[in-house]
Amino acid sequence: MEPWRSLALLAGSLALVSALVALSTDFWFVAIGPGSSAHSGLWPKRGEDLVADFIHVTQTFSILAALCGLGSVGLLVLSCIPSLSAPGRGPLVSSITAFVAALFMVVAMAVYTSDWWSQPRHPQIQSSFSWSFYLGWVAALLWFSAGSLGLVAHSRAPRPGYDEV
């Protein structure tokens, strides 16, 4: 397997793991007050009936990004097996799905970031983003990298001859 496809597979796999960890943990932001601290994520645990719309949008786009990322990694794995993939097309289709995953994750993170910044602050409570939030941005960057590396792998792949068509 050529190095570009291997690097694309590594970046896509790391992006998928980062997105799944970010989705499943509840350390998107942390609030530190005078006597205690609290953290929250995308999946409210209390019996809150009313969840903010920006949380639903972030959940939806993050899940769509993870599904596209899974498809991208799957297509890259299949492109390594010549009998299961069209010659030279696996990295191209994988790149497109990686770019779509990156776009979905950027939308999810932008919605979460913009709405979080617009919420009112209490002067005695210090709140900030936490590590799950940053993993979401890392996943978007890694999917963009995987898509770019997949395009390089596609452009440098040997073209099939007449006897292989």
TrEMBL record:
Coiled-coil segments on the chain, per record: none
GO BP: defense response to protozoan; inflammatory response; killing of cells of another organism
Membrane-spanning segments: 61-81, 93-113, 133-153
Keywords in alphabetical order: Cell membrane, Cytolysis, Inflammatory response, Lysosome, Membrane, Signal, Transmembrane, Transmembrane helix
Topological relation to the membrane, as annotated: Multi-pass membrane protein
Record keyword Transmembrane present: yes
Leader sequence segment: 1-19
UniProt record similarity statement: Belongs to the PMP-22/EMP/MP20 family.
Protein name as catalogued: Protein NKG7
Species of provenance: Myotis myotis (Greater mouse-eared bat)
Lineage: Eukaryota, Metazoa, Chordata, Craniata, Vertebrata
